[in-house]
UniProtKB/TrEMBL annotation:
Region feature Disordered, mapped onto this chain: 1-24
Name the UniProt record assigns to this protein: Transcriptional regulator, AbiEi antitoxin, Type IV TA system
């Protein structure tokens, strides 16, 4: 889903031509060692790819196309529970530590139910309710939040 615009490459494999040449020409942006993306990739996805994380909470809701009360000003990322990130790497990010499913890692974003639950745990009640009801009615009709309407 999101891997079409961000690639991880080892020793230049996966890109046509040397990555440094593509980087200097502006065709790709270097995110981290061995990690490149197209320039139009959003800042939240760049941060997730740079830190080998997945989008979660509000960033995941926006990636799913859901309406949120306030768009996130910082990327919300989830990294595996055993991952170490120093304070400098976490600067400017909202980081959560959780076990990630292979599907979440592959897609680069938490699933619908996980996103709603994460937001319900971290956001103020009105923001979480807004997001949960939107997910229930518009985005994922098979998901039931138990009482915010038909």
């Amino acid at each position: 889903m999101y891997r079409a615009v961000a690639v991880r490459t080892d020793a230049g494999q996966g890109l046509r031509g040397p990555p440094t040449a593509r980087h200097t020409s502006g065709e790709v942006v270097r995110l981290a060692r061995g990690r490149y993306a197209l320039p139009q990739l959003g800042s939240h996805l760049r941060a997730a790819h740079r830190h080998s994380a997945v989008l979660s909470h509000l960033s995941a809701a926006v990636a799913h196309g859901w309406a949120v009360k306030w768009p996130p000003d910082q990327p919300w990322l989830t990294v595996p529970r055993n991952r170490k990130m120093d304070a400098r790497a976490r600067a400017g990010l909202q980081v959560a530590y959780r076990n990630l499913s292979p599907r979440e890692r592959r897609r680069g974003v938490t699933g619908h139910v996980r996103t709603v639950l994460d937001c319900a745990l971290k956001l103020p009640f009105d923001e979480a309710l807004c997001l949960a009801c939107f997910a229930r009615h518009c985005a994922a009709p098979r998901f039931s939040c138990g009482g915010c309407g038909p």
